[in-house]
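Late entry, evening session. Most of the bench is empty. Finally got around to the prediction I had been postponing all week. Sequence below, unchanged from the version circulated by S.P.
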Amino acid sequence: MMDWTKYQLFLAGLMLITGSLNTLSAKWADMFSAKGCHDDREHAFTHPFVQAVGMFLGEFSCFAALHILLCYDRRRPEPMINPGQSFNPLLFFPPAMCDMTATSIMYVALNMTSASSFQMLRGAVIIFTGLLSVAFLGRRLLPSQWLGIFITILGLVIVGLADFFSGHKDDTHKLSDVLTGDLLIIMAQIIVSVQMVLEEKIVYKHDVHPLRAVGTEGFFGFFVLSLLLIPMYFIHVGNFSDNPRQVLEDALDAFCQIGHQPLILLALLGNTVSIAFFNFAGISVTKEISATTRMVLDSLRTLVIWVVSLALGWEQFHGLQVLGFLVLLVGTALYNGLHRPLLARIPCCAAMVNTEEQEDSPGERERLLGDGSVQTGDQS
């Protein structure tokens, strides 16, 4: 292991803990039942769009983190942080809308499937981002990256099979709901990949500080989705919705349930605060350590979520899920070049690694796939 400073260890731990709490707190909120506004019976807290608003509030708060960092940096004899160029904030409106759509879909899916499957299936983002980067950014993928994509597809199939077989034994989720949730998560990754390609073009072209990009997208997402909660209150969707009025989103019912069960508010605040600290820690890990370390920590986050879910009894152990996780881990590692340091130690493979690194562009080495493009947001 490298000789990390205490500050680097703190950042790594902060990223791992807050990244895990982000998904776990969202799932915890989904598991509550409480009385609402319109009837006396208790019902499940299924308000994915309200949860998404809270997530964007967390992203929006990254503006505060950036200003604190800049104020601290200005007091140094030689400032170290580049605040970036001025830019038109509306440039981030299209990726923010992608973020809003994908996040809302994923919160809907989280109501239907387990937290561990939710986190694992998000690995599908490298498939679509890789293909879109070839089509729209003119990037040429390396053989190891193509192999990583195919292995990731295999891992997704294995995780899907694990959910299929577990769905017959799971009392908390119907098999149809589990499979629908899995498909929604994968569909959301297509939208996330579009967001990531848009973000990469904007951030590198205009030299935007990542925290400013996160905050800008958070503002647009929070503002637009908050307004959309009004028409959602009147859109009847029948059995698709679990709230008593069977509308797309009943924000008033959500607030009534929070009033009857304050722990729901704790879960929502955990989601909001953790997304803010996760983005700050992730960007800081990239700057202080490396993008590779960030990818490793992000993979460990999936493992933490799975272990905690098992320990709390939120889901049952399934061997296929372990295999799926390992296969996804290999696919992600190959795509992001995590195999290179290992191969570089083998004399016969060192030349091949050097060739790959020369072919790889600087932009690709700095990409942090999994939760954002240059990594601007977690999306859930």
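Two things to note before I forget:
Confidence is low (pLDDT under 50) at residues 361-377.
The CA atoms of residues 155 and 324 lie 5 Å apart.
Will write this up properly tomorrow.
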